């Protein structure tokens, strides 16, 4: 991958590759994927290759391909493929190709690919492809192709249309559907998902010219799940063939289609395509680029002046994907663990959203954070269903969530067990339960940072109170210790299954209940309608009795020998092995070549952050000495096989004063998708780590934290950073920050008084605050 192709205005905005390898297609497909939150399009090349993955996902359109499968985002029809022939020879960029560049321009969210190709007879043509998925009109995919005959006259043939012969790794989600071509021009494909019965409508139009003359009599082909138009002609040397292809994608899940018949939806979709056709690629592109400028780059105003250009590029890459992956338009939808860029994790939402991605939205775009939390509110139905079917009360959030009311969507069987040869059972959907407290924690964080009382009244309190009800029914009384335990769980570290008293889970469950008690008391005192409604719904008086009974008796693992907190009851008794090989691995999961998951349970090895994320989010419950001791104990045993791990470790390393380690870990976190490992992104982007990049910059290096509802800023920039600029929203007001090695400047854009803490000193201001960091840190 190349990051230095952008020059001038485009410097540090271009993610590119400068050669084509047909055996390493997945990386660019995912890393350069396009999206607008409504849909995500993997960046497979126009001309097909063996091993490519052509994906188009529309957020929220979950379907079960058969009763044994879990619900997943179906891979919708492909509109990007083109069959291109020069003198009858199929275009193949893996041979006789020069000047190959495929580049994603992060600023304009446009994918551009260009190269010169020589036919086997030695004739040269130049090709240039452009495409974008509009942020201005969420239903539009626009493509453009230009082919120039460089050396000789050539015959050109391009076949393009809508291809619904796609699947999710073989699983078919759609019925055959209906096909139609209007006026030899407007292609229509209407398909329906087999179980959820969602109608998908694809409309496509081409505008093709050869040497400036329009070609409008294409050869038309229909086949099973396929409509293709082909355009052909002879190009004289120096002449150009150009094809513009505009597609609109709509589904019956679209809010604006509520209550409409299929025919009405189709008519609407077709007329919106016609409007697009009247505008053409360039005009649509200008509007799309403006939307990115206004709604992303101007809004977030993130800038890093670093001696290493990669840093700002990585930050922009994160903002790009955070925008592309997030269904901000519809609160019935969550963020998928791979965004909309690949089949991995089937489009499901995990704790990745609440703990890794949501902080970005809470601080930078609270409206979107609110929508994502309403998704969890709507998910209460599924969470209550899950609690009931497991014999618990309250709301037990699914480890993997799809459509809000679905409940648990985790698969039951996974990778091969290298000892038995059978599939390994996936226990997460049953016993990885911390997600329930993570959701409650996220609601609290949102409320503290935004002060959005209406959200709490309508949604937030109910989530926090009902999740706390789950925890009281989940606790197990232990006669011997006289404490409540949480047994048989998986904590964040998924290499330890069926453990008792995972520290993260216990502390977070405790936090969840404590919060519910506080809110219960406040609500009761207010005697508000909200209290009466929730009391009736959740029997709060009873719940409070149960909370009071257990709160001081929940077992919270404490520092023991060497200040080490046991990650769970038995972790510290397991054997220790030499992990050097796995710590130095170039790609993840190599440990499974030597051990089965069951065997890993008996070794002190961790997949990912566990205690560290506890220290990060509940930082004031632990002293620095304890954090350092545990960092030093657990990090050497953590092989970071999960992409969620590195960003948290980077933040902790910075908090604990090791700036160069923090930067090294930050860099590694960025390289999960941007690094040289060419296969790591095959199944899609690592969205939690993308959210983590923003968190390391803002929560880590800038040192932003919300503590007890107060804002704290303890900046510690990497040594080679000269300046960091960004914005956050704090309780309804936009704050603009500029941090250098020795100065912090915060601007309150609405002149509303702000109180904040910098290195233990409190400041109040309502305009611009300038703090000398050297003085604040007590340095000379
Ligand atoms: C991680 C989980 C994460 C999931 C989805 C797993 O590999 O261990 O923590 O939620 O991936 O990203």
Give me a quick take on this structure.
This protein has 780 residues and is α+β, with helices and mostly antiparallel strands. Helix 8 (434-450) runs antiparallel to helix 9 (453-474).
Annotate the secondary structure layout.
Blueprint: E1 14-17, H1 26-31, E2 34-35, E3 39-41, E4 56-58, E5 82-86, E6 89-90, E7 97-105, E8 110-118, E9 124-133, E10 140-149, E11 154-163, E12 178-182, E13 186-192, E14 199-210, E15 213-215, E16 219-223, E17 226-235, E18 240-251, H2 262-300, E19 303-306, H3 310-325, H4 351-364, H5 366-378, H6 380-389, E20 413-416, E21 423-425, H7 428-431, H8 434-450, H9 453-474, E22 476-478, E23 483-485, H10 503-526, H11 529-538, H12 540-550, H13 580-583, H14 597-600, H15 611-617, H16 624-634, H17 645-655, H18 659-674, H19 687-701, E24 704-707, E25 710-713, E26 721-730, E27 733-740, E28 743-748, E29 754-758, E30 761-765, E31 768-772, H20 773-776
This protein binds beta-D-glucopyranose.
Derived from helix and strand composition plus strand pairing, the structural class reads: alpha+beta
Shape: globular
CATH superfamily of the domain at 8-274: Glycoside hydrolase, family 65, N-terminal domain
How much of the sequence lies in strands comes to 15-25%
Instruction: Say how many strands there are.
Output: 31
Q: Rg to the nearest angstrom? A: 27 Å
Largest sheet: 10 strands, antiparallel
Instruction: List bound small molecules.
Output: beta-D-glucopyranose
Oligomer: single chain
User: What is the top-level CATH class of the domain at 8-274?
Assistant: Mainly Beta
Report the CATH topology name of the domain at 8-274.
Beta-galactosidase, Chain A, domain 5
The percent range for helix content is 25-40%
Q: Roughly what is the average pLDDT, rounded to an integer? A: 97
Give the low-pLDDT segments: none
Report the end-to-end length measured between terminal Cα atoms: 44 Å
Number of helices, counting only DSSP H or I runs of 4 residues or more: 20
**CATH architecture group name of the domain at 8-274:** Distorted Sandwich
Binding site for substrate: 351-352, 607-608
Active site: 494 (proton donor)
Keywords: Glycosyltransferase, Hydrolase, Transferase
Domain Glycoside hydrolase family 65 C-terminal: 705-763
